[in-house]
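I'm stuck. Protein, please.
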Amino acid sequence: MKRIILLSGFLCFGMTSAQVPQGTQFISGQIGFSNTKDHSKNSSMESYKFLPTYGYFFAPNWAVVLSAGYKQDIDKSQSQNATLDVLSLENKTSAFVVTPSLRKFWVLDSKFSLFCQLDFPLEFGNVKHTTISNNGVGDAQSKNSYSSFGVSIKPGIDYFLSPRWKIAASIGEIGYFNTNYKESDASKNRFNMEANLANIQLGVKYIIPAKNKAD
């Protein structure tokens, strides 16, 4: 994997002849739903995401990008307390997401291009904790609003399906993230470093070519 990353780096800095023209635009995004269940632990996880993205090339091979949308994660589980009552636990995280980005592209040929993406993710949401017992005793609910910011770097690759359509894949991430919780007055810092094929994000891009100056 390290050799592939090093080779990609040499290719990136070596391929400077082909360019994405200034004024080119693209539209992409992520729409997702997943539902994972673990019957052995009586738990499940549902995730929703809607994150449209717009990009504009302000210079050849350089683009500013803005993503904005909504996401929700629902984590459900069951456990027993000291009196053997069955407790149903639910943690629901909902957030509005805004991510301005800067991307640098290196065009390899008519089909492939590499890119490196610098993200500044922002989240504004809340976490709801709900506990329900089978006998109605000890039920509880709490809500904690939060805001978070971060900075991260992601490498990726684009593949042209046609002159107007691309498949984009980003692989791994290196980043720092800070989260502040309002009600509990708590703060959490996280450093993330992932560079493996298990963390691939796929998307589809629609390309709007730059207009000719003569038009």
